[in-house]
Amino acid sequence: MEENTNTAFANQLGRTNVEGCCWWGRGIFRHINRGRCFFGRLDHAVGKRAAMNGRPSLYPDTDFCANPEAVCSSEDSDELQWIVGMFHWIDAVQSYNEDGWSFMDKLKELPAGDVADIRFNKMLIAVDCIMKTGNHRCEVGIDSIDTLVEVLEVFGDKYEQVALNAPTLSPTLTARPSASPTNFPTVTPTLEPTGSPTSSSAPTASPNIFDYPSTENINAVVADIQRNSQTFISTVFPAGSTGELFSFNGFAEVLFDIASGSVEGKYFYVGHGRTTNRNLRKRGMVNIAAFLAHAKTNGFQNNNCDERNVDFLMPDETTRKYPLSNSCGQYGDSYQDERCDVSESFMECAPDKNMLVSAVPGTDDTSYKNPPAFFCGPKAYFPFMGYFEAGTFAIINDEPFSNRAGRTNIESCCWWGRGSAQVKGVCMYGKLNYYIGARAKEEGRKSMFPDIDHLTRPFLFILPTHKFCKRPQEICSGKHSTRLTWASGMVNWIENIQSNFDYGDYLDRIVSGEIERADFISYVSDKLDGGRNKKERLINFNLIIESLAISIN
């Protein structure tokens, strides 16, 4: 695909040029830290302007007005990404005092050591509103109490001291930054609250329905599935009960394991919780049906483990051409750039330019009619890639041919979709390492696949090179593939669906009849792929709901 600069194309505000458009968001709060005002204030407080005015400056040689990209692309970027976030936190949150609601006063009112107190929840929702809208009252505030608990656990037995002292350690906390920023880098109490606005890691319903395994509920759900097993298996599983991949037996085994707690702190929801009743169980069955609908839509529809090349271009409006660089990402996506949030970046895989990986090629009599299996490799071996031409079934590799994202090579492009849910991207493969691979075992946590080996980290802050990061193809071509195809999908579901704070509400509403199936699947689809496969996912969801005899609208 080529850029078309022959005609002007306006954005929603009517802009057709990019002159003066250098003020996009950067840093840990990149959705907020943007605009000329913010970067001007930053330069005034910690940049070159502070130094020129005779005030102390953290970065006296950095002009944030002339070079705002210094936040992300300079020798100081590692710390600047955090500095700009803390600057905004001090300026917008710690100093907030509007309509009788003061952040510092509310902070002092919090009970030390008792994060279960409702005041913590209200505080976090208000802070999220301040971050998003500038006012402590809004309709989009998120309660991130679970992330706060995780942050406080880092302090361990020091938490009580931190909680007691945080509001009073520095007298500068109660005011906006003064003309002199000398106290800026010493504001340590922000360690406690900064976790809240960036969290998307766990559902926040109270009680959290996804955090309590229950053997009784798991057994009941398995019994419900077994009662409808024949219809269910024939409807859902292409491999039947005991195929090599995507079998019912493999699904049931991994479901039981992950719902029971084989992944530390992560549970696939089957209706378990602090209480046991039929509505909870039905809610669990709907969650299972939605996961399988996604898997059947994106994963094992044709018993393929590896993502297929399906995104074609028609530059001459006559012939479909499938870029061979689609292994880097389809429909404009770039899988190696699908990174974790800053708070979870320690989990992600580091792209390896020297990695050589190939997907499993088709073996049936018609496989030659389809684009070849994805593969990746360094530019030294594959300087550019061409395309597969439909109709002639020919691979044309005489000159570079771009995919939708503009890629013409396949270097570091080994992160295509695999398994029942087509896990993709450096973030999710890194999370598989962290939660179910050798890294979990190395760091003292339970691991489903502890023998997926790794190389020991030689230095503290260098990402470990586990086999999931070095050999992502383990999911489809390894000795654990019959289980990994399901385990990878369920971990992906936990992270991308169950982790949404309002997903529990959607389960409640579909079970109670407040919303239709289409509304529920629309929500799930938007979270998974921006609604790209919404219609097919709904069809599969309806089939599975009927095969399991689940009574919902």
What does this structure look like?
With 553 residues, this protein is mainly alpha-helical. The protein is 38% helix and 4% strand. The protein is built from 19 helices and nine strands. The protein has helices at 36-46, 48-52, 77-94, 103-109, 118-133, 145-155, 159-165, 215-227, 229-236, 248-260, 278-298, 426-436, 438-442, 467-470, 474-477, 481-498, 503-512, 517-529, 534-547; strands at 97-98, 101-102, 321-323, 357-358, 375-376, 387-389, 394-396, 454-455, 465-466. Strands 3-6-7 form a three-stranded antiparallel sheet, with no helix packed on it. Strands 1-2 form a two-stranded antiparallel sheet. Strands 4-5 form a two-stranded antiparallel sheet. The longest helix is centred in the middle third of the chain and has 21 residues, at 278-298. The chain is globular and about 75 Å long. It starts with 35 loop residues before the first helix and ends in a 6-residue tail after the last helix.
Note the main attributes of this structure.
553 residues, mainly alpha, 3-stranded antiparallel beta sheet, two-stranded antiparallel sheet, 19 helices
